[in-house]
Amino acid sequence: MNLFVENAWIIPVLPLLAFLIILFGRSFKLYDNKKISLYSTVGSTALGLLFSTFILVWAINHNNALYQHNFTWIQAGNIKLPFGWLVDNLSAVMLMVVTSVSILIQIYSHEYMNHDDGYHKFFAYLALFNFSMLGLVLSTNLFQIYIFWELVGLSSYLLIGFWFKKPAAASAAKKAFIMNRIGDFGLLLGVVSVLYFGYSWWMSSHQPLLSFTALSEAGSFILAHNSPLIVTLITFAIFLGAMAKSAQFPLHTWLPDAMEGPTPISALIHAATMVAAGVFLIARAYPLFELAPVTMCIMVFMGFITAFVTATIAIVQTDIKKILAYSTCSQLGFMVMGMGAGAYAAGLFHLVTHAYFKAMLFLCSGAIIHCLSDQQDIRHMGGLRKHMPAVAYTYLIGTFAISGILLSGFWSKEGIFMGLEAGKYWIILVLALLVSGLTSFYMFRSYFLVFEGEYKGESAPHKPDKVLTLPLIILAVPSVILGFALSGSLKCIGIGSFAEFVGYAGEHHASLILPVISLLLSLTGFCAAAVLYWDKAKQYVSCDPAIIKDKLSCCYNFFSNKWYIDDLYYGFLRVIFLPLTRIFAWFDRTIIDGIVNLVGESVKLAGKILRLFQNGQLQTYTAVLFGGLLIYIIAVVAFWLL
Amino acid sequence: MEVGLIHFIILSAILFCIGILGLIVSRNIIKVLMSIEILLNAVNINFVAFANYTDLGELKGQVFAIFIMAIAAAEAAVGLALLIALYRNKPSVDVEEYDILKG
């Protein structure tokens, strides 16, 4: 077992090899067979999955399992930046989530992307993403995580802009990259400040620089020697990184746009794994965050605002992928909220369960889009349950899970609510419960519109391939059982609770009020959606969504314009940023270019003068030659005489 | 008046100046070549004069003068040959016409 833990580096390295094989193999036209790209990517992930399984077993069998290996990567004076791999309970869980979800999505992608020209490129990017994400999970220190943080950002950019010939995809990729840069800047600032303010501690302690295992002591040192404001600012800077990556308000706008990428990518990167990296970072740097209650409070508020804003937008969306994207934002908001309220384990638990059911939901939407020949508008769907029952039932399972009706999402969200209760965020708790009701409403709305009623599209839907449905069915299993199995209810048969496994288990008071309230609210959401959109329910209570839309038209417009956040950004860019850049451009063109051109012009002028002497006249040359000689002689003689 | 070294030097200096003047001001290329010959002769006079007055007994200066004459003959031959080649390209003996090598 130790063999796997000690060689955990191989998990990220294998996908990197797969990436290089495809990259060079295709660049030099060494092969043309799709199987090679497929098998190298899937094989590397399968081996990673094998390793991750053993590592998870190892972590379960050890109390507070921890293994880390560091070697010096960069040495500059006293500063030795380490690089290595860290295996503990948190990374064991994340490794499992990432490898298991990504292997299913790779298999799915084989069918989904089979007729695309960029098949090989797609798998190369997938492998690159796997490398970056697994490297991020195994990072031992803040600086290393920053490197992989950037790498996942890059892979995300490449994959969002995969169909870069579509202008929408190209600009979505740019938007994602720029939004993430804002967060990355914060993260870098945070990392550097942790080093700067704790410099003497890092130097005297002989711990690997910036390592996560020493973060709590370093944090205490920083707090003891600086004002609490410094710690708050550092943690806020790190949280800014998490905000951008995990699509928190107001940096969330890139995530819905990222749906321009291929659907497997939306499932893998923009729902299950990469966007969870922000939450993972918060979990990794949790010792620091605990020292800054103000930042924790900000986290709760930001998480709540994100959850609420994106849930309201999701209600009025008509693009199936956009609905899922906004629900992802919303669920990420829940995770951040939980983290901020001190429900560390619950936040992570929600991350894990969400990864499975959201990946499944996205793959369902991908299957639908694939079978309807790229139709994404739910108004042109309906009645698809008869055409693709497997997709419909897995989507229904996912809907139940995300809505928090007894399946896995219920258990993990419960932990978050309890954390909010324990943290005494009463108002937020009430509002968060309402948001979970909204979640239920918009998810069931999408389910009813897509799978129930009459088919409203033009082209006849064809049956999904087995390769498309198999990953859905496999993902449905954790979506159903994971929440219940890891909630601690099965302790009697030896399955421990997730909260105890990742540590930071708060006191568990089994109050029944919160679960019942949240369940009731979710059911209310379900009923509302059923009344509005389910033809079978309409036999009893009929209500036309169009009437409500008319009555609440101001709200509807506000939500469907995404709270005007994008317009705000574009307005800011147009009114403030672009004029500013014009000033800079003017400065560059006249002053900087002016100096450069002046150098060129002066040389030119000198040339113009000097070329008068180079007139090709032999006699001029002779005259100059002897004239010069004469002057020289006169000078020497005069000097000699005086 | 005793003719001394200084007179020869003055003579050669005058000849040298005439040579340079001819080199610079004459338009005709033949004249330019002839001016170069005058320059060489000015140098020759210098050599012989110095050899005669300061280095009596050894014939270094005179030998140099003979060498220079030989070189001058060769130079005149090559120069005239070049001139003929040049004249075939451009039927003119005006030095100012030959300025195509300018930068």
How would you describe this structure to a colleague?
- The complex is a heterodimer of chains A (about 650) and B (about 100).
- Helix content of chain A is about 75%, strand content about 5%.
- By secondary structure, chain A is mainly alpha-helical.
- In chain A, strands 1-2 form a two-stranded antiparallel ribbon.
- The longest helix of chain A is centred in the C-terminal third of the chain and has 46 residues, at about 565-610.
- Chain B has a single domain (about 5-100), classed as Helix Hairpins (Orthogonal Bundle).
- The longest helix of chain B has 30 residues, at about 60-90.
- Chain B is elongated, with a radius of gyration of 17 Å.
- The mean pLDDT of chain B is about 90.
Describe the structure concisely for a colleague.
Chain A is mainly alpha-helical. Chain A contains 27 helices and 2 strands.
CATH topology of chain B: Helix Hairpins
Q: Give the integer mean of the pLDDT values of chain B.
A: 88
Percent strand of chain A: under 5%
Order of the strands making up the biggest sheet of chain A:
1-2
Radius of gyration of chain B (CA) equals: 17 Å
Number of strands of chain B: 0
Domain tally of chain B: 1
Would you spell out the secondary-structure blueprint of this structure?
The complex is a heterodimer of chains A (642) and B (103).
Chain A: H1 2-6, H2 10-27, H3 34-61, E1 66-76, E2 79-88, H4 89-112, H5 119-138, H6 142-160, H7 167-197, H8 199-205, H9 215-225, H10 228-245, H11 254-257, H12 263-272, H13 277-284, H14 286-290, H15 293-316, H16 320-340, H17 344-371, H18 389-403, H19 408-422, H20 426-451, H21 466-485, H22 498-502, H23 513-533, H24 545-551, H25 553-560, H26 565-610, H27 618-641
Antiparallel strand pairs in A: 1-2
Chain B: H1 5-25, H2 29-54, H3 60-89
